[in-house]
Each structure stands twice: as structure tokens, then as C-alpha cells.
Amino acid sequence: MGETRVDLLHLLEDLRDAYAGSLEETILTEIVANSLDSGARRIDITSDATSRTLTITDDGTGMKRGEVRRYHDVASSAKTRGQGIGFAGVGIKLALLSCHWVYTESRRGKVHVATRWHLASRHRAPWKWVPPEGLAPERGTAIRFELTNALSPLLDPGFLEVALRWHYLPLFEPLFEPLLRDHYPHGVRITVNGRALEATERAAREQATLEVRIGRKRKPSALGYLVRDVVPLPEDQRGVAISTLGKIIRRGWDWLGITPATQDSIGGAIEIPALAECLTLNKADFIRSGPRGMTYLAYRKAIQNAVSNQLAAWGDARDAAEETRRRITRPVERDLERVLIDLADDFPMLGTLVEHREGGQRRLPIGGQALDYARGLVAATIAASAVSAVATEGAQLADTNGGSAATALDETAAAEPQPSAEAMIPSAPGPKRAARYGLSIEFETRSSDPEIARLIESTVWVNDAHPAFRRAVLSRSEGYHLALAVAMALAPLAVEPAHQHRFVTTFLARWGQALETGGRKRRG
């Protein structure tokens, strides 16, 4: 009789590599995520450099004896997809890679149990029941592990605080409290070595509040803010961060597909609880295919509208030259949509950008635990918040309405709401057609980069500093250059390196055919 053997060490290393951050960051943030999923109101973190131990306790629901037993199965999880931000208790499982042992204690009702666990070899991670030490509160879970490295960042309280504020920024921002109250009705209090992590004030000179509403709902489905300063922000604060249930998933400008004129001086964050349903399996990114992917992309479009409106109010929108360039790219984008629809059958990896459906595009699921399919509009409205004025040697800063200047530090002027920006959700039934998943063309200047374009999210960023692009502009052949740039940017996604030349030639051939057929509808 055969026996199935699992290389646990290799499996854990693969899990570690699935996260962009360091192992220590992943361990900490994932343990906290599972505490939040358990309904914890308080999470206490204690590091002891002398004993090289880290202890994390919460007052969540705790675990039953059977759940504690399954908790030691690396491939097991009791979580329901779309209802949390933690992944299969992976934080403490990854801790096996960097510690001598893991002690887990859980209390739920009359059940009070504890275990001790360690990685003995590549194929064995034995655990055993041990008497509880009384670390867990009246209800909840406590975890303690001894690190192998005496210099591990997990033993540094400063690292713990910075990592928590970085990954769970909305939990420390009062702005997001009304939106997170439905999921965390009693709030969440986090302490590090006995000191509570309090909210921090934003020091940027200008601030604006963003609101995204779904259909005609009065309550915002997403809240956020943008900040702008006259000097560049710290690198970790630039761009827009998107979070769900308090956990930051993406950061920067690339994922949003918008680049302001002064991108180094603008930052912000947006919280969307409904996007918990769109998280990938490891909760480190968002799905971009199927109904869940359509939900994410629709919210992304609404956020783009909201951010673009605020950037325009600040004077950081595209200039006239960029608008002219956009008029050139729009016809190319329409042709590319037909090309991608044709190529999706031959190159399945392009299915992340285009998906075929019988009977037309399904209605977009927005919100609700049952992923209710609802037709409507995504209305992104901006309520510009008060603009802070900082006086430096008589300099005056006008408010976001362009009205009177604010000259006192303690005076703020409430700006008028900006016009709503609407993003239509495709939902009407009809003949078989493909849903376009938002492939767009944007421009960026990278003078030292030999590549003519790159693909980020669903945006092809064309390098307008490339000599070939400048030659195309002078010869008025921007359309062909854009088609070639898109083909080369999509090739690594669509095929293996050995077949990229074939993909580019096929792409250009289909692009030429789309130009010949014009706007005529396909039959079949």
C-alpha cells in the first residue's frame, strides 16, 4: 500500500513566497488578520528579547477542541471565502520556519485547551496537547513562539508598531470608523508591549475626503482621503492605498492607472469592505476574472473617477497635451478591444482581460453576503474636506474652491462637493458578446528604460521618452506604435518567452484586420 508524503518545508516556503513583504511582516499581519476575523475587540502583542518570544492574545471567539486539532493541518481552514481577510491561519504556520516551537492556547465556553507545535523535519511537524498556561483571556486565543534568531525584527516593538500601522492603517484612522463599524461594532484596540496604538493625525497641507456610493444608497460604500503637500511625501506614503476590512491590499499609483502631475506629493487611502469578497486565495491581491473580478474592476473605475475629480480640483489633472494624446489613444483602444476578443480563444491567458459569456454580460455583484446581482450605477462623489492652511513667511494657500485664502492655522474652509462621476455597470441582456475588462493605454516618462511599454494591472504604460515613440509622433504614426507597444507588453502575459515573437506578429495581423473591418459587428 502506498503512502502520500508531503514536503512541509517546501510547502511553507512556497506560502512564504506568495507574499510580497518579509517573512516577519507576513507572520505578524496574518496572525492579526485571523484575530480580526475571529471578532476580536482587543489584540495584545508582547515581545520579549530576553527569552526571544513573541506573544499575541485576542478576545475573539476562540476555538473548539476539534478546530484546534484541524488548526495544525497546514492545508486546513475553517474560513468562508469572502468573509474575512485572514488566510487559513497561515501566519502562525509560517512562524514554524523561524521559531523553535509554537504554543497555542484557546478558550471558548467550557473548552480550554492548549498545544505545542514545531517543525521537526522537512516532512514532519508534530504537535501535542499540553496543559494551558492561562495566557488566553476568558474567551479568545493566545499564541506564543520562541524565535530562532535573537535579532529578529519581531522582537523589536518599533518594528511591530510600524508594520501594524502600515498594513492596518484604516484601523487607526477615525475617518474610516463609520464604515468599519458594521464589521467591528465594538472597535478594535491593539497594544504593543502594553502601549495602545492611538490614531495619528495627517500632517499634509491639503486634505480631501473621497466617498463612493453604490446606486442610490445614502450610505457610502467606500470612504477615503487624499492628501497633498508642497514637498514630496515620504516614499511609503505616496500613491493611493486600497484596503478592505481595515487591511491594506495594494499601494501606489500603478494599480489605479492614474498618475497625477505631482505624484510624489500626493497620497491617500480608500477603504472598501465589500472587496473582501474579491480577495485572492492568499488575501494578498484582488481577483480580476468572473463576477468577483467585475466587482473589483467596477470599484476601481469608481475610484478612478473620484480621484480624477479631486486631482482636477487641485490642478493636478492631465494638461492639454495629455488630453490630445488621449484623443489619439481612444480609437486605438477600441480596436484593441476587438483584437483581444479575437485573441482570447487562441491565447487563454488573455482571459484576465476579456471573458466571453453566453447571453451577454452578467449583472455585477455588489455588496451583500450572498453576492446579490444588482443593476445600477457606481456613483463616485467627492466631498472635499476642510483644507488646512499653513502660513510660512506670509505665504497664502487658497482653498480647494479657489475662493479666499486661508491664512490662520486654526481656520479651515469646507469645500463644495464636486460633481458626481458615474461608471455604468454592464448588465443588459443581449446576444453573446465579450465583456471588456478595462484594458487602457497610459503614458509615462522613463528615459533610461529601453522598453517601449509595460503592463501593470489592466493598463499598458507606454514610454513616451523612448526614441521610437518620438519618431512615431514626428511621422504621425502613433497608432501603429501604440499597437506594437501593447503587443509587446501583453506578450509575456499571453505566452512563454519562446513564443512571444509569434504572439506579436499574430496580434499585429489581427489589429490590421480590425482596422479593415472598422466598426462592423462580428457574426457567428
TrEMBL record:
SUPFAM superfamilies: ATPase domain of HSP90 chaperone/DNA topoisomerase II/histidine kinase
A family per Pfam: HATPase_c_3
Protein name: ATP-binding protein
Organism in which the protein naturally occurs: Eiseniibacteriota bacterium
